[in-house]
Amino acid sequence: MATLLPAEWIKNWEKGGKSEFVQLCRALSENKSHDNMVFRDIQQALYELAYHVVRGNLKHDQASNVLGDVIEFREDMPSVLADVFCILDIETSCLEEKSKRDHFTQLVLACLYLVSDTVLKERLDPETLESLGLIKQSQQFNQKSVKIKTKLFYKQQKFNLLREENEGYAKLIAELGQELSGNITSDLILENIKSLIGCFNLDPNRVLDIILEVYECRPEYDDFFVPLIESYMYMCEPQTLCHILGFKFKFYQDPSGETPSSLYRVAAVLLQHNLIDLEDLYVHLLPGDNTIIEEHKREIVEAKQIVRKLTMVVLSSEKTEEKEKEKEKEEEKTEKPPDNQKLGLLEALLKIGDWQHAQSIMDQMPPFYATSHKPIAIALCQLVHVTIEPLYRRVGVPKGAKGSPISPLPNKRAPKQADSFEDLRKEVFNMLCYLGPHLSHDPILFAKVVRLGKAFMKEFQSDGSKQEDKEKMEILFSCLLSITDQVLLPSLSLMDCNACMSEELWGMFKTFPYQYRYRLYGQWKNETYNSHPLLVKVKAQTIDRAKYIMKRLTKENVKPSGRQIGKLSHSNPTILFDYILSQIQKYDNLITPVVDSLKYLTSLNYDVLAYCIIEALANPEKERMKHDDTTISSWLQSLASFCGAVFRKYPIELAGLLQYVANQLKAGKSFDLLILKEVVQKMAGIEITEEMTMEQLEAMTGGEQLKAEGGYFGQIRNTKKSSQRLKEALLDHDLALPLCLLMAQQRNGVIFQEGGEKHLKLVGKLYDQCHDTLVQFGGFLASNLSTEDYIKRVPSIDVLCNEFHTPHDAAFFLSRPMYAHHISSKYDELKKAEKGNKQQHKVHKYITSCELVMAPVHDAVISLHLPKVWDDISPQFYATFWSLTMYDLAVPHSSYDREVNKLKVQMKAIDDNQEMPPNKKKKEKERCTALQDKLLEEEKKQLEHVQRVLQRLKLEKDNWLLAKSTKNETITKFLQLCIFPRCIFSAIDAVYCAHFVELVHQQKTPNFSTLLCYDRVFSDIIYTVASCTENEASRYGRFLCCMLETVTRWHSDRVIYEKECGNYPGFLTILRATGFDGGNKADQLDYENFRHVVHKWHYKLTKASVHCLETGEYTHIRNILIVLTKILPWYPKVLNLGQALERRVHKICQEEKEKRPDLYALAMGYSGQLKSRKPFMIPENEFHHKDPPARNAVAATVQNGPGGAGMPTSLTINTVRLEEGTTEETDKLKEKSQGVVKVVNKAVNATPKVTTSNGNSASNSKIIKEKDEKEKSGKEKDKEKKEKTPAATPEMKALGKDGKDKPKEERANKDDKAREIKEKTPKADKEKEKVKKEEKASKEEKSKTVVTIVESKSTADKEREKEPSRERDVAKEMKSKENAKGGEKMPVAGSLKSPVPRSETSESEREQKRRKVDTHSSPSHSSTVKDNLNELKDSSAKHYINHTTPTLSKSKEREVDKKDLDKSRERSREREKKDEKDRKDRKRDHSNSDREAPQDSTKRRKEENGTTGSSKHSKSESPSDSPRLNEKEKEKNKSKSSGKEKGDSIKAEKMEKSSSGSKKESRHDKEKAEKKEKRDSTGGKEEKKHHKSSDKHR
Asked: What band does 709 get if pLDDT is binned at 50, 70 and 90?
């Protein structure tokens, strides 16, 4: 720092230094610019001067002189000089050099005249003062100054005390306490106060304190005191008031102190008027914020501990100790907590309506900490009351309620009252958010807020407001939802079981869409309870209480437990239901008592229950399958069952649940359909079960009343209301059709999308569940929706199928009620229009209404299938089949009678019951009578309806089947598009299909072959059965059962047969070209031959059943057992077939006992039932006419040539032979699938002649015989080709197992019969020895060859498919052409022809191939066309030939035959010529398709032709056998042949060749074949003789 006094000045002090110094000081003093800087410079100049003196550079008197000159320049110069002395005093006292200290003392003494003593005494050290002589003793001086300071600063002056100046303070208090009325103002009083202060020397702070005290005591005079204090404060420092208040608050902060509310109020008012700042006052208040936060944390920890204790399992001994400890703790807690001044002030602020300051205090604390103190919550509630008052009075008060109006706060600074909903947003919603769950302290305010919410929702949902208003309303709506979530629901949890509040809240909630409600419930359940310690405790207590109740809940104490559940549910439904549902999922026996105990819930609780159920269902942590992955989890089943029961019993909204199921379906998950199934079952009383008895099923074909009474297992009564609720839920939310369509689509989704990795059994279960629910749901809609509703919602059939991709069966199922509704409403219109009571008028009107309704349907269905389909069946027939139901076809009179009788019995029981009170008796009887009348009325109505429908069908039937192609093709389409899809749709549909077939037969429908239809149904069931699910198998079994019932009825009695089938076109055996109508009696199948055919069907069923049981496949075995159980009343009827089945089933029982218990159970069940049916089974010869001489004839022919066995005998032999010998068929059956899709096209050529020659006309049989022979000659060449091709070898290899298992019983039976015949015909011993030898040989061969067939079917098939079948086809085609051309030249030439040219069939074959994908039936329907066709043809040919040969054996007929032979030959040749030409023409066009057709048709003829066919194949079982036998034959032919029979040599050839073709014939077949062959080749005499002998035996 630069010096101001240069050294030169000091050296030349007297010359010029002094004057320079003075000049410097003057200049500094006069400089006004920077006062502070100048002051420093002056100080420095004086200091430097004095320092030179101390160092001895300048004399002290020189210095004092110059200082005397300078001192006048500034007023404060003496003070500056004193400061300089003070600094130097300190510095010199520290120095050791005494001289410098002496210089300093001399300087001060010299300057004493310049600075006053007092200033120096202030600033210099007492020791220095003593040395200067200014004081006597420094010690005394020190003591004196301490005393003075104490007196000054620490002693209160006496005039501050009241007792000193009692008069002044008394006057002050009198002034403040006077009556403040009239013209006394605060200004006037203030002047008086000032006077008193002055007069009595009062302390102003004390006066302010007294003003505050008086104000505390007179709170009503705000208007006086607030201005008084405000004006008084102008005289004080601003902080004074705050300090005084702080001092007052501190006074009450001892542990025992309690701050008076008046002080809080005064502080609050002063805060509201901004006389003090909250920040300034807040620091004076206790407890500190940190303490508050810690306390809050501690509360949360305690709450969690309580929860832990409640959830812990405590043993009883520990319990008592725990309780004692808890008591002690609670006693400690009850000691009063220290006063919380912050909360006190907050309460006061709220009471006077100072919301801003109150809010800022609450913001400093943890959330809801302040309002968790009841006084504050109540104060805030009161403030809300006041704020919402005008709006509540305007919109919220319920009608008729008076209410108690609340006056507004007197204070103008309080929040503005709300007049509109918009105003609520400003303050009220905010206040409510600070309240949170503690609104529970004021239920009245709770109700008010909810009512305002209701009023708002009314306004919100009404239209007509502007866009801006709408936006505002949207914002308000979201605020309301937030308030509901954060305030209303948590508050409800803390209220003590207030049911009224719950109902009040529901009033608002029901105006919200369920999506919002469920969202709120979700928050309430999963988040709210963790937000506050109180709620945490409440949750734990609720669970604890729920456990207590649920442990004690039984059927007996439902009422008291229900009341407890009700109480608990009013406040905390989510927690309670969550626990209850968890229990139900574990213990399904709780369902009934829980459902009964829920009757004390409020509407809100029911809604919450629905949410909780959905949440439980959607729980992602739960597995929907059991661990074995084959069954649905029991928790899901329990929940579904509970759902159904609870939704039925209580008025719970269903929309959410239904939408949940729809969403699951959309996502491709079908597990949750279980819920829909249960809900519909319980609410609508519509039960879907496969275990229905036939009585129930019969009742289900009646009207609604009969269904309800007799159709279901559970008598579900009073479903009217619940089904109405379900209907409304579906219609309001547009879920009816979407659910149906989703289910219909999901059926296939189950298999192709969902079923990927799932167990086949589970996939089947899910498919069934999906299908059953669809049927049940569709049934519900049909019976509950009005016509308009239904028609409005269900689109037309073509839209359903083509746009929504609904499967056809489901689409018709949904549309069917619509057609019925529509027809009945049209019919009613027509009836009203013109009143004619005659029955025919009514029928006519009905038919008209049907035409009106069904015409567009006929047009619509055309788009569902390819045009080719409509060549065989008309759209009208198709639509009629799919649109009718069992209700339309038959009246279940027995069911009506049964139910009426039940009611009569009930009434009698009521009469006999002595204990029943009379009024109840009367009621019950009235109910029964009313029901009885309803049932009788319904029966009458249905009877009329059925008669009308039958009339309509009679008129329609001629247009049904168009016969543009063959009958066979027609049957194919009928089975494929109508019967098969529908018979597995539902149990009633299964019965319907069987009835419909019978009805079409009874109506004598043109071009419908009943015989073919039944034959196709019974012949090939393996694939149908294999491709069914469990329930479908059950329905298919029902269908077969009903079909068998009809067949068995016809089979049982000739009279019935003649009456119901004798002259019916369905039993024609010659299927002529369309143009040719009218056949004679000979064209009909006679009774005895019908019995053979039935036996063949039974045999086919056995064969298929045994095959399925032997596959080892789970599905095959399960399904066939189900089907067998269903058809048990009518099958098996024949003893040997029954035994075969019994053995096989017994084997299954043994094999599956450990492996697959469900199959074991099914097999055991069936086995038991089968045994009980055994007494009713009959031997084969009783089932169809099987003559004992048959066996005799066989023996005779071996020696003597032909015998005279009667026609039925030979038929029998043929039939048996067919049964035993056509394992080849069964081979192909596997590929044939359900024998429907493609198979049939070509079967046409042969099958229609199934039973051609079974009639009595000899001429017919002759013709057919010739045709046979012609055909044989063609076929032999085919056979040779076949043998050459490699396809034959696998079959030979494949021979094996079947013969071991299955033919055993047949062999046994045959041995028995052989014995019987021995007894009867002793003459034939020699023959019998021969027979025995042959038997042995054949048995050995058989055991080698036939056994493996069933097992290696599939391999044989595969091999066969792999072989160059095309070459084989071509070869065969060529051969058949040759045969056809040479037909005329050969004496017995010509092959069997179909009435329709072949080209059409080949076309349809191609169509079918193209349409493989589109078919209705299950995938297996459309497999392996070629082999199927061959197989069918073979069987049909066999049929044909077998039925021919028997008639030839009758000698009398033979004579007649001769006469007719020529005629018939000519006729057949003419026909052949025509056909030949046609064929040649068409071959050019259709050569491709023809490659397959001829071969197929020949093959199919062999297989399909009904009950026959084995004669030509039956010569040998195996290649080794055939040569030996055939040599014998040739020898016999040489020795015994007569010139009569020209075709014998051909026959012998034929047999030789066919022997290698047929590989599965039994020994019995051989005998028969030999017999027949010889019979044909021998002369008439022997025939006659034998005829007589056989007559005797007969």
From this structure: confident
